[in-house]
Amino acid sequence: MRIGAVGPAVRPGAPAERAVRRRPGVTLLEVVVSALLLGVIVVAAMQLFKTVGFQRRAIERRHVAIREAGNVLERIAAVPWARLTPQSVGEIRLSEAARQALPGAELAVDVTEPGQEPGMKRIAVRIGWQDWPEARPVQAVCFRYRVEQPAGAPGGGPVR
Fold first, then answer.
1. Torsion angle, CA of 79/80/85/90, rounded to 10 degrees?
2. Which of 4-18, 40-54, 117-131 has the lowest mean pLDDT?
3. Is 101 inside a domain boundary?
4. How many domains does the chain contain in total?
């Protein structure tokens, strides 16, 4: 072989057929390492998708609970002032859609008359469900004030 020529290394005096050549390609070890790395990446991606799916469902359930709490407050707002008592709001139930979307859903409505101001009622709606141990219930609070009705309106007259 000439000096400066590119090619397989051949010992002087050795036949050219015995020269060791590296053929292009991959070894079995490289294939095994690549398969292991790919497996680790796939397992990590599956865990990530599982976690994201769980969190998405938890967020959807919380949105359902928030909307349901608002709906319950709207139903309570339609109750006349004189009939707005803890007993009357005890008859209010969760909607069918909320019961299906929230596993083990519980509704608690509390009507109190704080002594701060006469003619005011505090209405608290709490919706809890069994999603996971750290799930916090949704709570909405509003205040309702007695309003004078015109004398000719049902239940009207001056407020005493």
1. -20
2. 4-18
3. yes
4. 1
Which residues fall within 8 angstroms of residue 157, CB to CB, at 6 or more apart? 149, 151
CA pair distance 139, 63, nearest whole angstrom: 12
Q: Is 86 part of a structural domain of the chain?
A: yes
Q: What Rg, from alpha-carbon coordinates, does the chain have? A: 37
| pLDDT (tens digit per residue) in 87-120 | 888 889 999 999 999 998 999 999 988 877 778 8
pLDDT, tens digit (0-9, with 9 covering 90-100), for 113-133:
887 777 889 999 999 998 777
* Domain of 70, in residue numbers: 27-145
> Could you tell me if residue 157 is inside a domain?
no
The Cα–Cα gap between 121 and 110 comes to 10
Determine the straight-line distance between the first and last CA of the chain, rounded to whole angstroms: 119
In the structure encoding, which two tokens stand for residue 119, read together? Answer: 């003619």
